[in-house]
Amino acid sequence: MRRILLRPMCAALAALGAMACGGNKGAQTDAVSDTVSRRYVGTLPAADGPGIVYDLTLVNPAEDSLAGDFRLSMTYLEAENGQDAKFDSEGRWTALRGIPGDSSAVFFQLVETGVRPDTTAFLDLGDSVVLLGAGLQRAQSGLNYTLTLTE
């Protein structure tokens, strides 16, 4: 009975892993440790300035992994007296399935390490990710919240 239940579960996890990894475009493999990293970059809207430059790197322990570590750098353009302000965070990410209105959508949930861990979610579109808001909702403003996978 276990074997019958495990085979479909393994197949489903393998399929989710392939979608979460978005193929090989932009993925870099470390030959020594077999880790894979993907980097997404983009300038997102800011309430009080010209924008926030996001630089997100997802690191997988293996190509088909559904979780790993992340590094996120956010640079608020002209934030303090005309000077940019940069904030860095890191933590763990997990690929999950299902957002409101799309039960098959894959998104990355990022949880920062630290005293007050913050959680952020990005919808995986393969060659890009889109920042999700509260309740895993896409922005209704029409503004661009997309980070693009770099080569």
From TrEMBL:
Record carries keyword Signal: yes
Source organism superkingdom: Bacteria
Keywords, ordered alphabetically: Signal
Pfam families membership: NlpE (PF04170)
PROSITE patterns per UniProt: PROKAR_LIPOPROTEIN
Cited InterPro entries: Cu-R_lipoprotein_NlpE
Record has Signal as a keyword: yes
UniProt signal peptide: 1-20
Official protein name in the record: Uncharacterized protein
Species of origin: Rikenella microfusus
